[in-house]
Amino acid sequence: MNQLTEHSWSTPQRQAKAGLVIILFKATVSIVKTVWPLILVLLFKENKKGMDIYEIIILALPAIILTRSLVEYFYFRFYIAQEDLIIRKGFIRKQTITIPLGKIQAVHIEQNLIHQLANVAKLKIDTAGTEKTEAEIDAIQVPKAELLKAYLLKEKPQQPAESTVQQPPVDIPAIRLSFGDLLKLGISANHIQAFFIVLAFAITWLQNLEEIFGDRVIRIVKDSSSQVGISIASISFAVAFVLLVSVVVSMIRIFLTYFDFQLAQTEKGFKIKSGLINTRQNLVPFTKVQYISWEANWVRRKIGLYNLEFHQVMSDDASNKKRRVKIPLTQPQYIENLLAHYNSLVAPQSKGAFGIHTSYISRHTLLNGVLPIGLFLTIFLLISWQPWWLLLLLLIPAIALHAYVYQRNFHFYISSEALQVDSGTWGRKTQIVKWCKGQQVTLRQSIYQRAHELATLQLSTAGGTITIPFIPLELARQIQNYALFEVEKSDKPWM
Amino acid sequence: MEFLNNQLPIDELPRVENVALSPIERNYLKVLRWEWTITTLLLAVAIGFLLYFVPALRRPLPQVLLPGAWVLLTGAWFFIQEKAFAVKAFAIRDRDIIYRSGWIIQRTHTCPFNRIQHSAVTIGPLEKQFGLASLVLYTAGSNEADLRVRGLTESTAWELKEWITQKIVDEPAD
User: How far apart are CA B137 and CA B128, in angstroms?
Assistant: First the structure.
């Protein structure tokens, strides 16, 4: 039986018939998502004078949805040829996806409510960073899904055992946060961010009130605000109040996230546990770490409090956001511990620090300051002449100062193993990436950069991209060639 | 400007800049021009429609500004597209693929074969008319780390895909 099924994978096959329901549902959702403004217009249109263009479009929708689903269903094939899983799909835009079986990281079988009703499952094939490729089969019978999963994973070669570092046999507690640490974190948090959360919350809350009580609330608010009037006292009171609320909110956020924070080192990775209400537990396997960064805002830099992040393989965008863990470093020596399994600081072993070219300042100011502000001002002053718009011009020196400090602070260090990038205007950020973790190297040159022998270098990893702007072209090429050499000699696994 | 302190001879590494890149198919320019023509005409119809049917726009200023913007934007688009086409080129080395594109910002991507997760060949309706295809190479990096080589003949695209797939399989799985 089993052999028979194995053999049958090589013939191209469609999805399960019951899957048409799923495909229909999916098409409906995606089409409704794109045309919902139209539907809204139709629903709330007041004067009715027979059929109009909108209604015809709406009436045509089911036909479009049905056609699209049928096409999608009938032009979808999957099969296994030699060592590859092949998915062919599309009618107007034909697509053939080939996935070498050895590259398949995981196979997920999912069933939402409709899947359960139709007694089918969705098969998702995970190849580390493929959310965008849609390597998934929407509808497949459950037993078949199980068989295919088993078959796909059976072909996967064994991971090479990692045994370079003598691993400690038991969990070693590495970091714990005390109550004082939490307070420090809370006070130095980004209150501006918290302020916007409070603001957004207040706005939705006001809107809800308006919906419930109608105009009455608005009138009351307006009346009371006009009574108070605008005085220095009321403004400073408002500012103090907002500040206080923001501080309290960021304190609460910090407490919710970092309460009982524990980081322990295990044989395979770091185990992180934290959270007051939603306790989150994360395991960061050493091999999955693509690069490491730590940063601090201005206040935190002054009190020596950094947030470290392990950038892992992004296999799925949605779950990745949840999995992102920032580790508060309350003591500087923690950094060395956390780096030990990746790569130690590059700066001490490097031959020297490299910087970025001073023309970065003028170019950044021009492209991000003068041009957009100039354009904005021209348009708005043409529409209506309001002299106070000219105050926007003050932003330009601020942007220039920002670029100047950024250029002064930007340094990178190179060793045969890794790259370290230090940056930051008022705060500080350090990134360390091992060459062998690179996925792609890109050299970017604007017209200006081409004329001045400069380039921007991007090193993409499976956990994110590291960018070094405005360095001499020759240096950029050397780094590019070296990074490629390190990746291509391929004696180290990247995950 | 040597940056390493070990014995590795930096100057003897294979150099990306010394590779002669081959331009993509000339026919792809036709695809681009067709795309340009269709979009430009659609835009023109839309603008004409707006100017004719929306009363608020029946004033001299919009009557001049909208067509003016149309001429400027589509003209700039055409110019940039022609310039950018000349830049598009690719090369295959033993261990990686190089693709260069972009005129205002020129990007040279180099993607090692041992980092490619899987590959795809896509053929759009216009491309099909000219017998062209695009080769897409997916890496584990973020979206920007995927390589899309446009304007290959259909047979070249399939051959390259076959060849690269073979390369991936030959590599020890990471």
Answer: 20
Residue A370 is classified by DSSP as: I
Looking at the structure, tell me whether residues B148 and B160 fall in a common domain.
Answer: yes
CA–CA–CA angle A481, A482, A486 (5° rounding): 120
Range of the domain at B113: 88-170
d(CA A345, CA A415): 10
Name every residue whose Cβ is closer than 8 Å to that of residue B154 and which is 6 or more positions away in sequence. Answer: B121, B123, B131, B132, B133
The radius of gyration of chain B's CA atoms, rounded to the nearest angstrom, is: 22
Q: Identify whether residues B74 and B130 lie together within a single domain.
A: no
At A126-152, the pLDDT tens digits run 776 544 555 788 888 888 888 888 888
Burial letters for A311-320: b for 16+ Cβ neighbours within 10 Å, e otherwise? bbbbbbeeeb
B78 and B116 inside one domain: no
Q: What is the pLDDT of residue A14?
A: 83
Residue of A nearest to B136 (CA): A97
Query: Which residues contact residue A400 at a Cβ distance below 8 angstroms, ignoring those fewer than 6 apart?
Result: A361, A365, A369
ipTM over cut 0.90: no
pLDDT of B9: 67
Instruction: Say whether B122 and A314 touch across the interface (CB within 8 A).
Output: no
CB contact under 8 A, B10 and A478: yes
Mark which residues 119-148 of B lie under 8 Å from A by CB. 119-125, 138-147
B160 with B95, same domain: the answer is yes
Position A3 scores a pLDDT of: 43
CA distance A106 to chain B (A): 13
Say yes or no for a CB contact (<8 Å) between A461 and B141: yes
| E-only strand ranges, A101-231 | 106-110, 120-126, 136-141, 172-176
Which portions of chain A are predicted below pLDDT 50? 1-4, 130-131, 157-170, 316, 318-319
Chain A residues touching residue B12 (CB < 8 angstroms): none
Nearest CB neighbour to A439, from listed B115, B121, B173: B115
Total length of chain A:
495
Q: What is the pLDDT of residues A412-436, one digit of tens each?
A: 999 888 999 999 999 999 999 999 9
Across the interface, of A464, A485, A493, the residue whose CB is closest to B13 is: A485
With H, G, I as helix, E, B as strand and everything else as coil, classify residue A86. strand
Domains defined along chain A, listed by start? 2-154 (no CATH), 179-258 (no CATH), 354-488 (2.30.29)
d(CA B172, CA A494): 12
Contact B46, B67 (CB under 8 A): no
